[in-house]
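Predict structure. Chain length: 163.
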Amino acid sequence: MSEIAQTADVSLNVADYANVDAAGKVNILGGGVAGLGFEPSTGLTSRFTLVVSVHLPTALLPAEFSLEIFLTKDGELVMAPGPVEPQAVRISQAVTLDPPMAFQQPGRGHVGNRHGAVLDFNNGLPLSPGGLYLWNVRIDGDTSKTWTYPFAVAGLAQGIVFG
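Prediction complete.
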């Protein structure tokens, strides 16, 4: 078990759009998306942005950890078309988080620090309507603690049935 994974405060949000400004703040428009639109002609969802925030307390800083973000549907890893063969919708990165220089108070430490990951899918993703999708986050490969964000992909509207 990873002490960082067990102590971290992680949040996920799916939004219409988000970015990180020059000061490191995340700007979110239309956050809290529970369902994505689907365009049958392209086979893609509507555009969206995934925002992941990992906060570590003072006692754990400085810290190095691995951050893994992956997508599942009905408990299975989602695969997307790749250049040669399908690939898992999965992102992994090494993160170094130092104590912030600002907000330190002599004898009182600091407020911890936060790492933000903003993944913008401006063309959408090739996801099928129906079923429950989950964005998942793991730290240091620790499978005992996984943070999730559920959402659905809207299907085609059902027409009126006669007869």
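Summary: The radius of gyration is 19 Å.
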